[in-house]
Amino acid sequence: MAWFVVRRFAGAAVLGVLAASLAYLLAASALNPRAAFEGRVPRPPQAVIDARLTELNLDDRTPLPERYGRWATGVLHGDFGRTVDGDPVGAELGRRILVTLRLMALGTLLGCGLGVAAGYLGAVKQYGPADRTITVGSFAVLATPVFVLAVLLQLGAGQINRLTGVRFFEWVGEYPPGDPGLLGRLQHLLLPTLTIALGQVAVYGRYQRALMLDVLRADYVRTAMARGLPRRTALRRHALRTAVIPMTGFFAYHAGLMLLGATFTEKIFGWHGMGEWLIDAIGRGDVNVVAAYDVFAAVLVLLAGLLATVAQAVLDPRVRRAR
Predict the structure, then answer these.
(1) pLDDT digits over 141-152, tens only?
(2) pTM of the full predicted structure?
(3) Which of 38, 61, 193, 225 is surrounded by the most beta carbons within 10 Å?
(4) Which DSSP symbol is given to 133?
(5) Is residue 289 within a helix (H) or strand (E), and if so which, with residue range?
(6) What's the confidence (pLDDT) of residue 176?
(7) Separation of alpha carbons 293 and 282, rounded Å
(8) DSSP-derived 3-state class of residue 82
């Protein structure tokens, strides 16, 4: 098992380097940080703009391979460069990563858990009221863009606050001004978490339902029940475990979409995380910030894939022997 994990980690590391490098080259080729300086009022002298861009490794007149070499050397030493304002990217990167991970972790865990449970229930109660309700709700959520879903949740929360006369929900910022406290953080965390989780519940629920239907009438499940095992226990112990194995791979492929959903969610709810940072950086042509986000995204997606592969190997020993 240890050698299996090492080999998968080495492969993920190579892919991470390639993804980060391609992302930097694309950002450096497509974005125009010079415009951020030329558009300032009063406009700085051209010599000052050129000198500042060269200092920040953002000068589009410098050959792209040379700029990439300086950036890659800095990243290897933990230096992601500086923003167009001259601030260190690394310091802001560390703070914003914690914000994004705090938002994504709870929403992802809640979405995966409830999605698997919804898919299991829908398959076991196939064509029953519970299955039809879950199906209609899932398709309604899947048909709703994440930013529309966030606004609908805000409107619903506002109505609840007005009807009850108590502000159960807050949705502007990560926490209230002043001393946030645990309750204040939870109030601000609830709606963004639901925005991320609901989409995951809909996606994982439909996928898990289809997988469960494939194994409900499998020979090993019928054999377990024929030997006296209660149907609920046989389904949970044998059918569900088998049906969950492919879900691990689906989780890895879905990690990028989860990050995209978190980007819109942060911007809508005023969370100062990686997603908001990326959107603002693209508008300013801030190459080093966009590249830092791409490194974070590559690491996150590849780490999700690595964890999914390890979980699949734990659930199914044949994976370890095959690889």
Answers:
(1) 989 888 899 989
(2) 0.79
(3) 193
(4) H
(5) helix 287-315
(6) 73
(7) 11
(8) strand
Considering only 16-30, 115-129, 244-258, 290-304, which range has the smallest mean pLDDT?
Answer: 244-258
Return the structure tokens found at 322: 């095959």
Rounded Cα distance between 86 and 56, Å, is 7
**Could you tell me where the beta strands, DSSP code E, fall in the chain?**
none
Mean pLDDT of 10-37: 86
* Residue found by looking up tokens 């997603």 in the block: 275
Closest CA to 248 of 99, 116, 79: 116
Instruction: Report the DSSP beta bridge partners of residue 82.
Output: 88
Residue 63 phi/psi, 5° resolution?
-55, 140
End-to-end CA distance of the chain: 10
Q: What is the largest CA-CA distance in the chain?
A: 85
Q: Cα separation of 46 and 52, whole Å?
A: 10
Beta strands in 193-246 (DSSP E): none
Which domains occur in the chain, in start order? 2-322 (1.10.3720.10)
Q: Are 302 and 103 in contact (CB under 8 A)?
A: no
Q: What DSSP string runs through 148-167?
A: HHHHHHHHHHHHHHHHHSS-
Of residues 88, 20, 280, the one with CA closest to residue 80? 88
**190, 193, 198, 201 alpha-carbon torsion, rounded to 10°:** -120
- Per-residue model confidence as pLDDT tens digits over 307-319: 777 777 777 666 5
Give the pair of three-digit tokens for residue 114.
């409830």
pLDDT tens digits for range 263-303: 888 888 888 888 888 888 988 889 999 999 988 888 888 88
Distance of alpha carbon 230 from the chain centroid? 39
